[in-house]
Design brief:
Layout lengths: L32 H11 L1 E5 L4 E3 L15 E6 L2 E5 L2 E6 L4 E2 L1 H6 L6 E4 L3 E6 L1 H10 L2 H23 L8 E3 L5 H10 L6 E3 L4 E3 L7 E7 L2 E5 L2 E6 L4 E2 L1 H6 L6 E4 L3 E7 H10 L1 H24 L2
Parallel strand pairs: 9-14
Antiparallel strand pairs: 1-8, 2-7, 3-6, 3-8, 4-5, 4-7, 10-17, 11-16, 12-15, 12-17, 13-14, 13-16
């Protein structure tokens, strides 16, 4: 791997891939450190943090995709601790990214990040992230795969908790009207599919060959009968099965008369690669789910 070039700033060597033990029974991580490094090299800013210095704080507010000053980070060397209310959550090692969920999902930081040792990082704000994504859209697919893997683990944990009800996430307008029109045109203006109230759209464990873009009504997403999300017009669901090609993680049921159009895997991959805004919308939706289900597991609601 070539040394990093930051316009006369000191070059940084490629980070060594993080090595963390994999719990028994869990699949290997889909995260690719070298792909992440190449992505951050495109437009990243080299920063240094002394041992003990906070990088960001839990509950920092966001306002829109990548709020003013919000950044995501790739650790080059040193290590970073993530804590919640003073309790350790995770240790970030060289080659890993952190801070991406809150920045992408438009929610407050869910943890505090502190340099445990002297650290060097590459950071991206919104403009730099978009610049990198335009040149390397495969990073979005990799990150979606990581999020899908994390979501499946979290959903499985939530199912074993045997909760009778939870505060369900409400998803609307993940895709704005302009993007909806563009997507429909790209797909040849297909006729929408309609479901009546109470009709199952997909079933947990079933084979996933397409994702769904809701244009009318409301869809309930449930796991073992527990409703965890409501998807309205402009919302999306079913994309996880296209990303990792594993069975459906949840059941989707029409709560009202609903309509949607479908996106199969090949058009899905093509649009992620050619339309950065589409990739960002998917990342935002998936990151929001990761954050929401994580909060349900943490607070016991």
């Amino acid at each position: 791997m070539d040394d990093l070039d930051f316009s006369a700033k000191p070059a940084a060597p490629a980070p060594k891939p993080a090595v963390k033990p994999i719990p028994p029974g869990e699949p290997a991580s889909l995260y690719e450190p070298r792909l992440a490094l190449e992505f951050f090299k495109i437009a990243g800013t080299l920063e240094q943090f002394a041992a003990g210095k906070p990088i960001f704080l839990e509950n920092e507010k966001t306002a829109g995709f990548f709020s003013k000053g919000a950044r995501i980070y790739l650790l080059l060397d040193g290590d970073v601790t993530l804590t919640l209310k003073g309790k350790p959550l995770e240790l970030v090692l060289p080659g890993e990214i952190f801070g991406e969920m809150a920045a992408i999902a438009e929610v407050p930081r869910s943890a505090t990040a502190t340099a445990r040792k002297n650290c060097r990082v590459l950071s991206l704000d919104e403009k730099a992230f978009l610049q990198s994504l335009q040149q390397m859209p495969e990073f979005a697919l990799m990150l979606m795969s990581v999020m899908a893997q994390r979501l499946r683990r979290s959903v499985a944990k939530l199912a074993t908790a045997k909760k009778s009800s939870v505060a369900a996430l409400v998803q609307n307008n993940s895709l704005d009207k302009k993007m909806l029109v563009e997507l429909q045109h790209e797909l040849g203006d297909p006729s929408p599919t309609v479901a009546q109230t109470g009709q199952n759209v997909v079933t947990q464990g079933g084979t996933g060959a397409c994702m769904f873009v809701v244009i009318q009504g409301r869809i309930a997403i449930s796991v073992d009968g527990l409703v965890i999300e409501h998807v309205g017009p402009g919302g999306i669901f079913g994309e996880m099965a296209l990303v990792d090609r594993i069975g459906r993680a949840a059941t989707a049921t029409a709560e009202t008369e609903s309509a949607w159009f479908l996106i199969a895997r090949e058009p899905f991959l093509s649009m992620v690669k050619s339309k950065p805004a589409f990739g960002i919308a998917l990342l935002r939706s998936m990151a929001g789910r990761v954050q929401h289900i994580g909060s349900l597991l943490r607070d016991g609601s």
